[in-house]
Amino acid sequence: MNIVLTRLDRVGDLILSTPAIASVRRSWPHAHVTLVCSPYNATVVERNPDVDSVLVLGHNERHPGAFGKRFRGACDIALALAPCAPDYSLVGATHAPVRVGYTYVRRYFARLTAGLHLTRLAVSEADPALCERHVDYKVRHEVEQVLDVVRLSGGSQIVTDLVVPIDDVDRNAVAHVPADGIAFHLGIRWFTSGSTLESVLLLLAELRKFGLPVVVTHGVDTLAQAAAVRAAQVADAVIGGLSFSQWAAAFEKSRLVVTVDTGATHVASAARRPTVVLFEHRYFHLSSQEWSPYRVPSVCLRKPTSDDAADLEASRASILGAVEQLLEAGVKTAIQR
Fold first, then answer.
1. Residue boundaries of the structural domains of the chain
2. What digits encode the pLDDT tens for the residues 245-301?
3. Using 50, 70 and 90 to split pLDDT, how confident is the model at 335?
4. What is the mean pLDDT of the chain?
C-alpha cells in the first residue's frame, strides 16, 4: 500500500498535523507513506519517524496538480492535511481510490468544488464570524480536525501526541543556553498593531522580576529587533540561527515559553512546555481555541486594539500575571509529585 499526505502551508500547522501522520503510520504500519510539503515547513519533518519519504514542492514547481500526477497508478490513499486548494489539487491529481480532506463549515465554495478533487470531505465547525458573534461557540483544536481526515479515510489507530524529535545532539547544541528560565520567542507579531518594540523591551525587563533567566529566541525575520534587545540588555541570552530541532531543544530546557501567535506556540507544545500566547485581537475567539497550546498548561491572551500606552501597559500586566500563574502551578505540581 502507498499513502500520500500533503501539507503545504505553515510550520505550526504541520506540527499540529504530526498526530495525524503518526495515526496513518499506526493504522497502516506496512504502507509506504510519502509526505509532500513546502520548502518553508519541510524542516518540521526532516526526522519524523512516521514517514518513509518527504518530497518538497519547490517555489518554482508547476501547479501542485501537476506534481500530484507523479503518483497516478501508484497510490492507494491520498490525504490533504490542510484545508487549502493547492493540497486538494495535489491529492486529486493522484487519482487514488481514497482521497480525503477537510474544510470549514461556511466555506461553501470550497465544499462545492472539493468534489472535483476528493472522494470524502470532513467539515470542521471552525468559522471566524460565528466565533465572534457567539463567544461561547466551541471549536475543536486543529489537531482534532486533522485527525478527522485520518478517521474518514479508514484509519483506526489514533495518536494524539505531537511528534517533534529532539535528540542529544540537539541538546548539546544548546548547552550554552541558560536552563530553567523563561523562553521568549521574538515573533514579528510582537511589533504589529497592539504591541510595539518599546513595550516588548519593557516586558522583557519586567519578566526578570521572577528571578529566572530570560532567553530570547528569534528568526531571520526579527534580526533588527533582536539587536535592539541585545543593546537594551534586558535578556540573559538572545539566540538566533538555531535549527528547528535545536530551537525545540532550547524550549525543552526552559520552564515556560512566552510568545505571540506563531509556530513557536506549537514548538513549545511539542517540547511539553507551559506557554503564554498573545493572540491577535481580531478573531481571538477562534484562534485561541483552534491554535491554542496543545495539551500543556497555558494562558491565551488577547492583544489590545491600539498602541495606546495604557493599553500596552495593561497587556504587559496580563502577560506577567499569566507567567506568574503558570510558574505557581508548576511549583504546586512539583510539590504534589
1. 2-152, 168-336
2. 999 999 999 999 999 999 999 999 999 999 999 999 999 999 999 999 999 999 999
3. very low
4. 95
Secondary structure (DSSP) of 213-264? -EEEE--GGGHHHHHHHHHHT-SSEEE----HHHHHHHHHTSSEEEEESSHH
Chain-centroid distance, C-alpha 46: 16
Q: For the structural domain made of 2-152, what CATH number should be given? A: 3.40.50.2000
Q: How many CA atoms lie within 13 A of 235 on its CB side?
A: 27
Residue keyed to cell 529587533: 225
Per-residue confidence band for 336, with pLDDT thresholds at 50, 70 and 90: very low
SS3 label, residue 61: coil
Nearest Cα neighbor of 44 from 71, 5, 77, 76 is 5
* CATH architecture assigned to 168-336: 3-Layer(aba) Sandwich (3.40)
Residues sharing a CB contact under 8 Å with residue 5, sequence separation 6 or more, in sequence order: 20, 21, 24, 33, 34, 35, 36, 51, 78, 79, 81
| Number of other CB atoms surrounding residue 172 within 10 Å | 11
Q: Which residues contact 271 (CB under 8 A, 6 or more apart)?
A: 164, 166, 248, 249, 251, 252, 257
Sign of CA pseudo-dihedral 138, 131, 149, 122: positive
Q: Do domains 2-152 and 168-336 have the same CATH topology?
A: yes
Cell of 158: 489514533
> In this model, does residue 148 exceed pLDDT 90?
yes
**Number of Cβ within a 10 Å radius of residue 278:** 26
**Residue 195: which residues within 8 A CB-CB, separation 6 or more?**
189, 260, 278, 303, 307, 312, 315
